Each structure stands twice: as C-alpha cells, then as structure tokens.
Automatic annotation (TrEMBL):
Classification of source organism: Eukaryota, Fungi, Dikarya, Ascomycota, Pezizomycotina
GO molecular function, one term: L-aspartate:2-oxoglutarate aminotransferase activity
Domain Aminotransferase class I/classII large, chain residue ranges per copy: 64-435
Keyword Amino-acid biosynthesis part of the UniProt annotation: no
This protein's name: Aspartate aminotransferase
Note: In eukaryotes there are cytoplasmic, mitochondrial and chloroplastic isozymes.
Entries under InterPro entries matching the protein: Aminotransferase_I/II_large, Asp_trans, NHTrfase_class1_PyrdxlP-BS, PyrdxlP-dep_Trfase, PyrdxlP-dep_Trfase_major, PyrdxlP-dep_Trfase_small
Length: 443
C-alpha cells in the first residue's frame, strides 16, 4: 500500500470515528440539550437581505437574468473590473524584495493613513496643518463606522442619539444598535419627487437636542443617489453649528460619484472650515475596486483651540485601545496597494483616469436608461434617473413591483427599489427598461 493510500485510509478511519462518536453521543444523550444556547435565548436570525438576493441570483439559470443588487462596479460585460492602476501597484508590491507579512502597527500602515487623511480632508486642511487630526486604518468603511460608533458609546459625556437619514445604508442601523447607541431618523428622500426632502431634513436637524450626532453621506448617498447641493450643505452646517451637533461623516464613494476627488469631499472640507469637531469614515472598496481587501480609514478631527493637539492625542490613545481589542492590527495588502497609488504622482494620475472611466460609464447608463424609458413612454416621471448621482438609483418601484421584476423578468434588486447602476450595460439596459415598463403598467 502506498503512503498516499495509507494516509487516505487513516483519514477515512478518523472521519468514521468522529461520525460514530457523534452518533453514539446523540443516542446516549436523550433528554439533554445539544447546546447551552436555547432557541429562546438565541433564535434563528433572518438571512441578510442583500446577500440572500445574491444567492438567489446565482441559483437562477435564466440566460438574461440581471443583477442590480450589490454595490460593486461591473464593466460593460457585467464582469468585475480590476483597475489598471491597481494591477500596476500590485505588480510593484509583489516584486519588492523587501515585502514581508509582518503585523502592521495598531493604527495601520502610516504611509497609507497619512495619504488617506490628505485625500479625504484635503491636502491643505487646517486640521492637518494644526495637528488636530488622528487617523486609523480600518477594515474598510464598515470597520470605520463601527470604530466611531464604539468610541461614541464609550466616551460621550451623555449617551448621544445618532440621527440617520431615512433611508440609509442598512448596516448603519445594526452597527449603532449593536454598541448600544440610540437611533433616530431624519427625513431625506421625498417619494413624490424622488429627490431630497431638504425642508424635512433641516427641520428635524433643527429640533435635535444639543450634542446629538448627525450621520451624513458626503457624496453619492446610499441608497438613494440623492445629494445636497453645495448651498444646501452650507445651510446644514450652519444649523448644526448653531445647535452644537456632531457630524459623523460616512464617505464610501469619493471620486466615484462625480469623477472628481475634490468635488466629492466638499462637504467634509466645509465642515472642517467651519470649525467642527467631527469624525470621517472612509472606504477604498468602490473607488479602488478593493472590495475583498477591506481597506479603509477612520479620521477624528478636533475643533480649533489651544488644547486641540492634546485632545486629539488623548482621543487617539483610546481609539488605539478599541482597535486593539477589536482587530488587533488591520490587514496589510489592500492598504499597501492604495498607499502605493496615493503616494506616487504618476500612479495617482492613472487612478484619476480609472475613476473617470467608472463614474463616466455609470453616467452613460443613467442616460441610456432614461432614454429607453422615454421611448417606451413608461408611466410616471423618470427625470430622477439622471438627476441622481453615484452607483445607486432609487427607482421608485414598490416592493410588490420589485417582486414582479424578480419573479417575472429575473431582475434582482433590493426590495426598496434601489438598483446598482453599475449592473446595467449596453447589453441589458433595454431589457431592464422593458421590464420596468411592464411592471409599472400592469401592477
């Protein structure tokens, strides 16, 4: 008998022994519980809606099925796209003879966090110049939101209430709830106009108690694709300053919304210029296509003042303790790729080209979808398709219509009517428009 066959037989014997032990244990444990965590203490959780939608799409064998659910960029052939600049940076890193896989510091790769800080706050930010900003590498934007939420829960003088837009990214609710932070909402999306309910938003912010936290999406609002104008951002900042409210800024799409990095961080720069203390969550999933590498950053900015440098040092020390207990050290490879690009002028320019490629294709798909719906004379107003911005569009379709889209036309989208515009391309946009037209006319 060969050593390979012997090893196989030994593995099979061990498997049978384990199975026999399990079976005999079950036979001999009548009347006892298999777990300390009974159903009333630990009930079955509902499947995550978005990942459940993805699984349903994969099971579908229809040749014209359309995936508009998950927020990941796809090229015109509905395939994931590895950015040109990411391929270049990846090759440079892999060929570096000094590359190793040692732990990063708790706060992350320094050259990454400093570059990320300049990117999101602005290279000439007074917060950076005055040493009032602290930055931590996180497990993408999700990890950044969690780190910020955990800090607020642990160190706020009084338990603050966090106001989330209605609607918002679904994970915001879970993250803040899981750390015990109170949640309320402010109006955001007007279902009639399919645009921003600015008056409702501002009215609720005005009525929020002093010290409340207002979570804001600086660009490409998820899930609606509706953003305030610069003038509206200025009004929001003015009201929040008067009420002494804390801005919690979650930015997952810088450069991906308009194709301009400086345009997409306008709100953040304005709040800093107005002298706010605030925090910023930053993701490199979308704008670098580094979805699985989980590269992100969390930034804390202290308001101007004589004790700014001391305050940010204290806050950073506590953030480090939280980070240590949560993940110990952040993952390295995605941060190395982003850092290589952010710190190299030639690669940075290539990245900006890649951003324009992605944002430009999405803008073209918005125009194409609007054109197809107009040709079909689909009932309703569809101007919001082109006036909204970024990866997502709130179509205005009802939950019942979304269900018809999936069951009748094999189009997969979240039940609130949100679609990922990146899932549309020249091969399926006409099919999708006809499906929309059908359910709108016949629902």
């Amino acid at each position: 008998m060969s050593s390979k066959d012997e090893s196989t037989n030994q593995a099979q014997t061990r498997l049978e022994q384990v199975q026999g032990h399990t079976n005999s244990s079950n036979m001999g444990s009548v009347g006892t519980s298999a777990t300390h965590f009974s159903e009333d203490a630990c009930p079955q959780a509902a499947e995550d809606p978005l990942f459940g939608l993805m699984a349903a799409y994969r099971r579908d064998t229809f040749d014209k099925k359309v995936d508009l659910g998950i927020g990941a960029y796809r090229d015109n052939n509905a395939k994931p796209w590895v950015l040109t600049v990411v391929k270049k940076a990846d090759a440079l890193i892999r060929d570096d003879p000094n590359l190793n896989h040692e732990y990063l510091p708790i706060a992350g790769l320094p050259e990454f966090t400093l570059a990320a800080q300049k990117l999101i706050l602005g290279p000439d930010s007074p917060a950076i110049k005055e040493g009032r900003a602290a930055s931590f590498q996180t497990v993408s934007g999700t990890g950044a939101v969690h780190l910020g939420a955990l800090f607020l829960a642990k160190f706020s003088k009084s338990q603050p209430t966090v106001y989330l837009s209605s609607p918002t990214w679904a994970n915001h609710n879970q993250i803040f709830s899981n750390v015990g932070v109170n949640i309320k909402s402010y109006p955001y999306f007007d279902k009639k106009t399919k645009m921003l309910d600015f008056d409702g938003m501002l009215s609720t912010i005005k009525s929020a108690p002093t010290g409340s936290v207002i979570l804001l999406h600086p660009c490409a609002h998820n899930p609606t694709g509706v953003d305030p104008t610069k003038e509206q951002w200025q009004q929001i900042a003015k009201v929040m300053k008067e009420k002494d409210l804390f801005p919690f800024l979650d930015c997952a799409y810088q450069g991906f919304a308009t194709g301009s990095l400086s345009q997409d961080n306008y709100a953040i720069r304005h709040f800093i210029e107005q002298g706010f203390e605030l925090c910023v969550c930053q993701s490199f999933a979308k704008n670098f296509g580094l979805y699985g590498q989980r590269a992100g950053a969390f930034h804390w900015v202290v308001a101007p003042g004589s004790d700014g440098a001391d305050a940010v040092k204290r806050i950073a020390s506590q953030l480090a303790i939280l980070q240590r207990s949560e993940i110990s050290n952040p993952p390295a490879y995605g941060a190395r790729i982003a850092s290589k690009v952010l710190n190299d002028p030639e690669l940075f320019a290539q990245w900006e080209d890649d951003l324009r490629t992605m944002s430009g294709r999405i803008i073209e798909m918005r125009k194409a979808l609007k054109s197809e719906l107009d040709k079909l004379e689909t009932p309703g107003t569809w101007d919001h398709v082109t006036s909204q911005i970024g990866m997502f569009s709130f179509t205005g379709l009802s939950e019942a219509q979304v269900k018809q889209m999936q069951e009748k036309h094999h189009v997969y989208m979240t039940k609130n009517g949100r679609i990922s515009m990146a899932g549309l391309n020249t091969n399926n946009v006409q099919y999708f428009a006809k499906a929309v037209d059908d359910v709108v006319r016949n629902s």
